[in-house]
Design goal:
The complex is a heterodimer of chains A (116) and B (117). With 116 residues, chain A is an all-beta fold. Helix content of chain A is 0%, strand content 54%. In chain A, the strands form three sheets. In chain A, strands 2, 5, 6, 10, 11 and 12 form a six-stranded mixed sheet that branches. With 117 residues, chain B is mostly beta strands. Helices cover 0% and strands 51% of the residues of chain B. Chain B has no helices and eleven strands. In chain B, the strands form two sheets. In chain B, strands 2, 4, 5, 6, 9, 10 and 11 form a seven-stranded mixed sheet that branches. Chain B has a four-stranded antiparallel sheet with strand order 1-3-8-7, with no helix packed on it. The chains are: A mainly beta (116), B mainly beta (117). Chains A and B meet through strand 6, strand 10 and strand 11 of A and strand 5, strand 9 and strand 10 of B.
Chain lengths: 116, 117
């Protein structure tokens, strides 16, 4: 079974500083990996996804993530944090069920706080 | 971009009553829709997967008779929480995807907060 572990339920960084949100996965097959962002009282918005093409994936809002098979990691980074980046971030891995439906397994989330 | 809406955005009901939540894909046809629930400060947990015109597939531990899912058209899926109890209070989120390939992006609705008194 697929699983995702996000280290650090809360991360605080100063505005302008590097953002690093950690995600490690467990998968028996080459995974498809995702990062989603959730703003308060809103649904999830896709930041980026890895689908076995380039290992460095660039997403929206200046975020990027690097797939490292040897470390089973897919950490999310942004060079310079902005106040608007404050939100909850979820890492997810997808797999197909017996009916061919894509199923997402989410990590527990990391709440990012930006310090002015 | 693809937009998914949910209605209502929040609902309060009495214990024992039933509540229906709608999930609509506004600008694309959704062959598959997913229902998740999210407890406070926790992650999303998949409840069920529904394909248009067929019965929903429920995750282990989710009561199919309590959480009725209907995916009658390519743009609408409904989740009915029957005989709701306070422990059913949660944030319910739907998502929709236009295809069957597992690289297809799931587009998420804004969620429905259910409070059962």
């Amino acid at each position: 079974a697929q699983s995702v572990t996000q280290l650090g339920s809360h991360v605080s960084v100063s505005e302008g500083a590097l953002v690093l949100l950690r995600c490690n996965y467990s998968s028996s097959v080459p995974p498809y990996l995702f990062w989603y962002v959730q703003y308060p009282n809103q649904g999830l918005q896709l930041l980026l996804k890895y689908t076995s093409a380039a290992t460095l994936v660039k997403g929206i809002n200046g975020f990027e993530a690097e797939f490292k098979k040897s470390e089973t990691s897919f950490h999310l980074t942004k060079p310079s944090a902005h106040m608007s980046d404050a939100a909850e971030y979820f890492c997810a891995v997808s797999d197909l069920d017996n009916f061919g439906n894509e199923k997402l397994t989410f990590g527990t989330g990391t709440r990012l706080t930006i310090i002015p | 971009g693809a937009v998914v809406s949910q209605h209502p955005s929040w609902v309060i009901c009495k214990s024992g009553t039933s509540v229906k939540i709608e999930c609509r894909s506004l600008d694309f046809q959704a062959t598959t829709m997913f229902w998740y629930r999210q407890f406070p400060k926790q992650s999303l947990m998949l409840m069920a997967t529904s394909n248009e015109g067929s019965k929903a597939t429920y995750e282990q531990g989710v009561e199919k008779d309590k959480f009725l899912i209907n995916h009658a058209s390519l743009t609408l899926s409904t989740l009915t929480v029957t005989s709701a109890h306070p422990e059913d209070s949660s944030f319910y989120i739907c998502s929709a995807t236009p295809g069957h390939q597992n690289t297809d992006t799931q587009y998420f609705g804004p969620g429905t907060r259910l409070t059962v008194l």
